[in-house]
Amino acid sequence: MALEQRKIQPNYIPEQETQANPASIPAPKTRKIFSPGEKFLAVVFIAAVVMFSTMVLHTQAQINDTNKDMHYLSNKIEETSKQNIELSNQVNEKSTYERIWEKAKELGLNLNESNVKVVPGR
User: Fold this and answer.
1) What is the pLDDT of residues 63-91, one digit of tens each?
2) φ, ψ for residue 29, nearest 5 deg
3) What gap in Å lies between CA 71 and CA 80, rounded to an integer?
4) How far is C-alpha 99 from the chain's CA centre?
């Protein structure tokens, strides 16, 4: 019936009606924005996101360290291979027949043809 009266009255103001009869209208319930279960789920979700992001950062740091070690080792390998090449060149230079013969003369050795034994080659 109140709805019919509202339709009929062109200047209906709801404030006048609530002031006229305040005891009959219950106060509106204030609803909480989030329930405790929703808050708990939000905290769990945020904790999971933080944990996974920390794990990703930790993994990336380990990958970075491994890459740095690999780079260091590859440089070390290059340096060692260069030294090996230099040393093999020195061995080739110092193992020539002429150099060995000069060194033998410096040490006072001489070639005695009668004392030379020929070993068949491979």
Assistant:
1) 999 999 999 999 999 999 999 999 999 99
2) -75, 135
3) 14
4) 56
The span from the CA of 102 to the CA of 97, in Å, is 9
pLDDT tier at 10 (50, 70, 90 boundaries)? Answer: low
CA atoms of 94 and 88, how far apart (whole Å):
10
Q: Which two tokens stand for residue 32?
A: 């909480």
Alpha helices in 24-94 (DSSP H): 36-94
What is the per-residue DSSP string for 85-117? HHHHHHHHHHTSHHHHHHHHHHTT----GGG--
Q: What letter would DSSP give residue 23?
A: T
Write out the two tokens for 35. 């329930």
Cut 0.90: pTM above it: no
Under a CB-based contact definition with an 8 Å cutoff, are residues 64 and 56 in contact? no
Torsion of CA 34, 36, 40, 46, to 10 degrees: 20
Q: Would you give the DSSP letter of residue 118?
A: P
